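[step 3/7] fold_predict: job queued, chain A
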Amino acid sequence: MNSDKFGIPVQAVGIPGSVFLYIATGLFGIGWLSEIWLIPTEIFPSTSRAQGSAISVIIWGIANFAVTFLTPIGFNNLNYWLFLIFSVTNLFAGWWTWVRLYVAAWLQMLIIQPQAYSPETGRRSFEENQTFFDNAKKEGTWLVTRVDKGVFRHLPREKGNDERQPLLAGDGA
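[step 4/7] structure written:
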């Protein structure tokens, strides 16, 4: 082993490597896997949610298979060039993500004011939220205050649950 040749204890590399592996796997699951498992369940209507999620997971599985299958071939044939290919593609993906998310988000916040165009979707089903977009299309505007007289600007109120009531209101005693 190279660790014996250079006088590096195996545990000095093994323990931090194992800790980093667990941390990286957890962060990957929290970050990128949400696009595969969570987002499809949110964007598809109830009638096609299972099919949409299945397609998303199938595409994810095929991509994982391709990377897992092609990486050993690349190690055998490309040697260290494979790391350069991975680093270039990862740098591009990082740059693309940064540009799409951060720069576009700041420009949108400064120029467009997205709260004027973003309906409140809390406590509403997917189908109820779709009515906003259907009505916005009919009315020819995306301004939340102009669609359905601004109903989608705030959370819907639950009947009999007035927020102005004290939390520990008695029975009238």
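[step 5/7] annotate
The radius of gyration is 25 Å.
The first helix runs from residue 2 to 6.
exit 0
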